[in-house]
């Protein structure tokens, strides 16, 4: 399974339209357009999962830089999400970088 980042999407793009672009290169397992949690509007990027890495590589090569609705797509293999360092057990720092004790 290969996860692909698709950036610079037209804000009117739908999961169906993104899926159709990638299906020209192989089987698409999942498409997720990222939306703003407050407004529900597209944030202009999506993730596409393809089961066959060779098909995914061909899709990346074929679609990166392609012009769709006047916008040049940015398509590449998605990088793993980096942790923010604020997981469990991580306290907050004040403006001087000093750790504050949690009240909980």
In terms of per-residue confidence, which ranges show pLDDT below 50 for 5 or more consecutive residues? Answer: none
Main beta-sheet annotation = 4 strands, antiparallel
- What name does the CATH topology of the domain at 1-6 and 14-34 and 53-79 carry? Alpha-Beta Plaits
Instruction: Report, as a whole number of angstroms, the end-to-end distance.
Output: 40 Å
Tell me the CATH superfamily of the domain at 1-6 and 14-34 and 53-79.
Answer: RRM (RNA recognition motif) domain
> Judging from the principal axes of the Cα atoms, what is the shape?
globular
* Binned strand content: 25-35%
Give the strand tally: 6
The secondary-structure class comes to alpha+beta
Task: Give the % helix.
Answer: 10-25%
- What is the element string, with H for helices and E for strands? EHEEHEEE
Radius of gyration: 18 Å
Strand arrangement across the biggest beta sheet: 2-3-1-6
CATH architecture of the domain at 1-6 and 14-34 and 53-79: 2-Layer Sandwich
CATH class of the domain at 1-6 and 14-34 and 53-79: Alpha Beta
Number of helices: 2
Feature tags:
104 residues; alpha+beta; Alpha-Beta Plaits; four-stranded antiparallel β-sheet; two-stranded antiparallel sheet; 2 helices; 19% helix; globular
What's the arrangement of secondary structure elements?
Layout: E1 2-7, H1 15-23, E2 28-35, E3 42-50, H2 53-63, E4 67-68, E5 71-72, E6 74-77
Antiparallel strand pairs: 1-3, 1-6, 2-3, 4-5
Short characterization:
The chain has 104 residues and is an alpha+beta fold.
């Amino acid at each position: 399974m290969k996860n692909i980042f698709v950036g610079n999407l037209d804000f009117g793009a739908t999961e169906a339209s993104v899926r159709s672009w990638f299906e020209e290169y192989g089987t698409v397992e999942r498409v997720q357009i990222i939306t703003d949690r407050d407004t529900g509007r597209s944030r202009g990027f999506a993730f596409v999962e393809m089961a066959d890495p060779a098909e995914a590589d061909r899709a990346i090569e074929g679609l990166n830089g392609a012009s769709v609705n006047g916008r040049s797509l940015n398509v590449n293999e998605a990088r793993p999400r980096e942790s923010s360092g604020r997981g469990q057990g991580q306290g907050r720092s004040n403006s001087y970088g000093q750790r504050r004790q949690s009240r909980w």
